[in-house]
Specification:
With 383 residues, the protein is of the alpha/beta class. It is 31% helix and 20% strand.
């Protein structure tokens, strides 16, 4: 989960320079991700992110502000060599600290901007560090709303040194509007009571568990962090609103009848800022199954103290009703709780309360795994 994974991350394995590193999703050496490459040509095309990475988290004020880097470090430790923190940074990924020069010497190939300041722009002093990375032969990648390729100093340095920049948040293709036509294959969408609550983490945990059981399963990224982890996807919040459902249809197309797409949810139907993208995901994914994500201790909707977090029953029923527009047979199969702020005993109590309320298996994917949720999924869709 976005918050929990930052301080409960797995042990990092050393990545062998020049060799493929092995993760649960298979060998990784290059990730092909859409972005701007070789400026100043200005054309958008697919670029290849070279591994391993240095995760730049700047002066992030807390763990959640560095959630992009934290997600990469948790799920791709085998391709993360270190982190770069600036004075005042209150986030820590548990990776070795490196300067830009040390990263180049260690064999880092790409510097990932894994945090953001207010407004999604570069912080003071960041530009010079990133120019230095380009000068030392490293590429840059970012999930910020503000494109790195729009910054003259970075664009010019990349062109001068033959390096590339990937702004992965910005789609590189156009999408058709959604059509709602039923397509083969099975799909599960993670939904939530709020944003930044663990939908990506839950979808990845489900993929890992299902693959371990020999099932055909693929995580489908809909945000910049997921794209860095999976190597592809569409950052849905950067798609023009009329085309969100069509973009999701493209992201998880027709497939084998026994294949599962595990689609990363975004926002919440109950969050006034992000409900639109949440609804588009529900309609475009045509989910056969939903997993509801929630943080028991959250006091209000993120960033909106005047909006209460909805109760689980209301949230689940609303998501099911919305999903039925394009998939009338959708069912819920589990609840994923982010219990990072609870004691072990309190976490167990929270899961039991959620199970009693909704009659569904409930687990914290970080501390408990998702095995019981997958059991429920498989039992409901046994052929």
């Amino acid at each position: 989960m976005a918050q929990g994974c930052a301080w409960r991350r797995m042990n990092s394995a050393d990545a062998a320079i020049g060799l493929c590193a092995e993760g649960f999703r298979g060998p990784v050496q290059f990730l092909k991700i859409a972005g701007f490459a070789n400026p100043p040509c200005g054309k958008v095309r697919a670029v290849t992110l070279r591994t391993p990475y240095l995760l730049f988290i700047g002066d992030a004020p807390d763990q959640l502000a560095a959630k992009t880097a934290a997600g990469i470090a948790f799920w791709r430790p085998e391709i993360c060599l270190g982190q770069l923190r600036l004075p005042g940074c209150r986030a820590d990924l548990g990776l070795p600290h490196m300067t830009i020069e040390e990263a180049a010497t260690a064999g880092v190939k790409t510097v990932i901007v894994g945090t953001t300041n207010r407004g999604g722009v570069l912080g003071e002093g960041w530009e010079g560090l990133l120019v230095r990375a380009l000068e030392l032969g490293m590429d840059l990648a970012s999930g910020l709303h503000h494109r790195l390729t729009d910054i003259p100093a970075l664009r010019d340095a990349a062109a001068r040194h033959g390096r590339q920049i990937a702004d992965v948040r910005h789609p590189t293709r156009e999408f058709a509007v959604g059509n709602g036509v039923k397509r083969p294959g099975k799909r599960l969408l993670t939904v939530g009571t709020d944003c930044s609550i663990g939908k990506m983490f839950t979808a990845l945990a489900l993929e890992k568990e299902m693959r371990a059981r020999g099932a055909k399963a693929d995580f489908r990224a809909t945000g910049q962090t997921g794209i860095f982890i999976a190597g592809d996807g569409v950052s849905i919040d950067a798609v023009v609103s009329d085309f969100v459902s069509g973009a999701v249809e493209w992201l998880c197309p027709a497939n084998d009848p026994d294949h599962w797409d595990l689609i990363e949810g975004q926002g919440s139907l109950f969050h006034p800022c992000y409900a639109g993208v949440s609804l588009g995901l529900l309609h475009g994914s045509q989910p056969d199954a939903l997993v509801l994500c929630h943080e028991p201790q959250r006091p209000h909707m993120r960033g909106l103290p005047h909006y209460a977090v909805p109760d689980l029953q209301t949230c689940l029923e609303t998501n099911l009703q919305s999903a039925r527009l394009t998939q009338p047979d959708v069912i819920p199969v589990g609840i994923a709780l982010n219990t990072s702020k609870l004691t072990t005993e309190a976490a167990a109590d929270a899961c039991k309360a959620a199970e009693d309320a909704l009659g569904l298996p409930c687990q914290d994917p970080v501390t408990m795994g998702v095995g019981r949720i997958v059991d429920k999924l498989f039992s409901c869709f046994a052929s």
